[in-house]
């Protein structure tokens, strides 16, 4: 018998590491993703939970934990405002060197009326520098156009 091959490993336990970040297949738990813009990674550091997903979350202000690479970040989720947002997102963004064009996948691990827990995957976007000046980043109506 030879060494086990990657295909022999159960998918649910597979973790791929690429340049220090870890990736794994999503479970069947709910998730949402966000492509980061200037407003999410520079002052204002404003992250809003997408409307379709926020409808499934509590409509109150509760503690929230983001976990990435074995570390936890404590946030406050504001579900009672018109825009469901996170306080303390700035610390997570800076600690993980998030940039415009990166994406985060938030996989819900726990959801109750007293606490939310999400496991985060970070997908590095690295937009080429020649396009950064053309990227508005304030809304989805300002796409990068390649001519």
UniProtKB/TrEMBL annotation:
GO function term, MF aspect, one: DNA binding
UniProt KW keywords: DNA-binding, Nucleus, Transcription, Transcription regulation
Entry-linked PANTHER family: B3 DOMAIN-CONTAINING PROTEIN OS06G0112300, B3 DOMAIN-CONTAINING PROTEIN OS11G0197600-RELATED
Organism annotation: Prunus armeniaca (Apricot)
Keyword Transcription: yes
Location(s) in or outside the cell: Nucleus
A Pfam family recorded for this sequence: B3
Domain TF-B3: 32-126
One cellular-component annotation, GO: nucleus
PROSITE patterns assigned to the protein according to its UniProt record, in alphabetical order: B3
Superkingdom field: Eukaryota
Listed Gene3D superfamilies: DNA-binding pseudobarrel domain (2.40.330.10)
Name listed for the protein in its UniProt record: TF-B3 domain-containing protein
